[in-house]
Amino acid sequence: MTYENALSALADPTRRRVFERLKSGPRAVGDIARGLPVSRPAVSQHLKVLKEAGLVADRPEGTRRVYYIDPQGLGAVRKWLDQFWDHALAAFQAELERDEGDTQAGKGKS
Amino acid sequence: MTYENALSALADPTRRRVFERLKSGPRAVGDIARGLPVSRPAVSQHLKVLKEAGLVADRPEGTRRVYYIDPQGLGAVRKWLDQFWDHALAAFQAELERDEGDTQAGKGKS
DNA sequence: ACAATCCGTAAGTCATAACTTACGGTAAGT
DNA sequence: ACTTACCGTAAGTTATGACTTACGGATTGT
Fold it and tell me: For residues B74 and B23, is the Cβ–Cβ distance under 8 A?
């Protein structure tokens, strides 16, 4: 359920930039917005989306609000992706061998 | 570069349903569209986006076109996510300990 | 108490993208 | 050769969401 919101949240480029800014550690909103090509309220809205997706969490610090990465959303996406990984590798390998069989044996029909 | 398109592609719900239908193995377009609440051309457009993101590949089979999951796009996203994982766990753990210190020692300022 | 700082939300604008129907092109079967 | 099945693309419509400015609430310092 939460991996859906997380994927949707990470789809936006500037929202990813916001998220990436938290990789180096917790930061306040104004600090995150500094250097980004969008306004501070826009960053607040992005952080709201990231929070609802379980990708970040926040803590009040005086008049500021410090945000940091929440492993929950990240883990949900990873788990969802892993569900495909084995199938993908097997299917892809099968395709390669299928193609080999065709070209090598001269089964091309033209 | 390719993880961006992959994230953007996996953000759409119906596109995820298309992608998930390929988990059980290669399928033709019409077969994928069967049961989905959108038209077949819509599925073709979704497959085009998934293909450009490196998430699926296709092969002609007579008059049909068989699609299957491509591990490339999947791997790119996994790699990008893993980049955050360690940082996220460390930062989150630090937040937990920070909170413990505050509440237990009675440092609340009120 | 007052001023200043920091932040979230509301309202409104505008671009994007997800869908539809219509069409054309290719491969297989008769 | 003709029909049928399967698919991709074009054109047009519509909803969604990313952004802006304006505003109000909460906290800290003087």
Answer: no
